[in-house]
Amino acid sequence: MRLVIAHVVVVLALSGCKPAEPEKDRTAPRVIAVEPSDPVVPVDVAFVITVSEDLLATTVDADPTSQTVTVVLVPRAATLDALITDFNSPPLADSRQDEPVPVDVDADGAALVITPLAPLEPRTAYVLLLGSDITDAASNPLVDGSGLKALFRYDFETDGGQPTVTDVDVDGPGLVAPNRRRLVITFNQPVQNVGNDTLTLTPAAPIDAILANEARTEVTVLIGAGEGCNRLAPSTTYTLAVSAAVVGDTGQALAPFSADFTTGAACDAAPNLIVDGPDAIPGEVAASVRFETTKASTTEVRFGLSGGPLDCLGAACPVLGTPARAAIAGSSPPRFLHSVELAGLALDSSYDVVVSAEDDVGNTATAPVSFITAPLPKVAINEVMANPSTSSEATGEYVELVNFGDVVVDISGWLLLVDGGDEGGGCTAELPEAIGLAPGAFLVVAGVNFDEEHYALGGDVAVVQLASQSGANAMCGLVNDPKPFLLADSDGRPVSTVSSHASTDPKENGLSVERIAPDAADVDESFCLCKASIGPTPGRANSVTIGGCD
């Protein structure tokens, strides 16, 4: 009996045991590292992306035409949002402006190696996307840091790529004067290690110095003195070479470069002359100096308080402008425009300036100019309507000025420059004579077809309607994109500006761009769209001054 009972107990115990089932993997993969981690990468980059779980290789697909695409590399562009929408519902549409960059993807356990099939474009912003349909072996999808299913986005930019020489100012069909003093070499990015051992001239010529500009993108070779007017041998072919020992800031070697040029038999004896200017346009604590020369040449300025040394007020001296190498479009004989900005000046102070321009054979032109800094009138560009809701643009566009000071300001002959003005390829409008702007007063500047009734302007609102959109005293047409506006007084002094990168894009129909307060600074943060519930406010206080920006 005992044996039977013992047997039964054993059988019952065995019948109640089941094999243990393996626990289901519920841990989802997430990206934990990207290499290289620097947001600026070489153009020949290969990314290694590490995730927290081994991935199912069949879910990693870089074919943009596939229904299961999960890896996309694209330039960062305006179409990105639409492309992400397609990415979440593949395949990608063929109509996108930026085609995905072809890449090779190697999925090895918890690592993805993503390699573009060709070098990326230099100095370009890109976005790398990994779709949430990438899974591990247990079909757990890719998740974000919160554990929610989500695509992974990585933004980066490429560096300048391999350094290259983009221009040499003697690389052309013309003959080079044998008394040439300067040879200028331009690179596509900042470079290092440019010197006598990495830059050579054959046959050899005496080189006084090799000077790099502040950005290290341009190098000037100064050739030493020769016999007579000659620095180089007449009627001789020279080779200017830059070796691969010159490198970019990322350590990439320069693409080896050489250029041949031939000297003429006669020296360049033409003087370099200053033919227009110099003119100094002072502000309150800054000034712009402009002048023109007869030859391509350097741009240098020395300045100081009147009667004192021209020491540039203790800053780096002389102040260097960009060399004037390209002739002014349409100028005949050719003229070369020079420009230098002076900063750090004192209000109500007198300054002396000497400008200097040395041409390529060493001829130097100099000229003096003086100016006095003074307070600017307290007048501002207060509102811009570029995209009105009127039947035509011309009937609704306007620019509103405001006097936020405590004295009447004579604005006769003042200039409104749109997108650089006439000289910069934009438009310049000139205000007529006999206009005084009282303290707190507004002035609406518009075209001859301006529709005052559309804005319900009262009879006390001052409106200047310029006669036409072409010729003298013309009102500029206002394009529906952020463009720079500059108000200059009759002496050419900049009084008020609206940036070309204003924080508000004036494309929305019927809404103006308003300054948050008449005396607010000329910075992007001082502007926003008028409140939609109020609308534009020509001739009266801005809606955003009263109610703030939306």
Count of discrete structural domains: 4
What structural class do helix, strand and pairing data support? Answer: mainly beta
Global mean pLDDT: 88
By DSSP, the count of extended strands is 36
Strand order of the largest sheet: 32-31-26-25-35-36
| Relative helix content | under 10%
Gyration radius, rounded: 34 Å
Helices and strands in order, then pairings?
Layout (H helix, E strand, L loop, with lengths): L1 H14 L15 E5 L4 E2 L5 E5 L19 E5 L4 H9 L14 E6 L2 E6 L8 E6 L21 E7 L6 E4 L13 E6 L3 E2 L6 E4 L4 E6 L5 E6 L13 E6 L4 E2 L8 E6 L11 E9 L4 E7 L6 E6 L13 E2 L15 E7 L7 E9 L5 E9 L6 E7 L7 H4 L1 E6 L5 E2 L4 E4 L8 E4 L5 E2 L4 E6 L14 E5 L18 E4 L5 E5 L14 E3 L11 E3 L13 H5 L3
Parallel strand pairs: 2-8, 31-32
Antiparallel strand pairs: 1-3, 3-6, 4-7, 5-6, 7-8, 9-10, 10-14, 11-16, 12-15, 13-14, 15-17, 18-19, 19-22, 20-21, 20-23, 23-24, 25-26, 25-35, 26-31, 27-30, 28-29, 28-33, 33-34, 35-36
Structure description:
It is a single chain. The model is unreliable at 1-15 (pLDDT under 50). The protein is mainly beta and 550 residues long. It folds into four domains: 31-158, Immunoglobulin-like (Sandwich); 165-262, Immunoglobulin-like; 274-372, Immunoglobulins (Immunoglobulin-like, Sandwich); 379-547, Sandwich (Immunoglobulin-like). The strands form ten sheets. The protein has a six-stranded mixed sheet. It starts with a helix and ends with a helix. It is built from four helices and 36 strands. It has helices at residues 2-15, 80-88, 393-396, 543-547, and strands spanning 31-35, 40-41, 47-51, 71-75, 103-108, 111-116, 125-130, 152-158, 165-168, 182-187, 191-192, 199-202, 207-212, 218-223, 237-242, 247-248, 257-262, 274-282, 287-293, 300-305, 319-320, 336-342, 350-358, 364-372, 379-385, 398-403, 409-410, 415-418, 427-430, 436-437, 442-447, 462-466, 485-488, 494-498, 513-515, 527-529. β23 and β24 (364-372) form a beta hairpin.
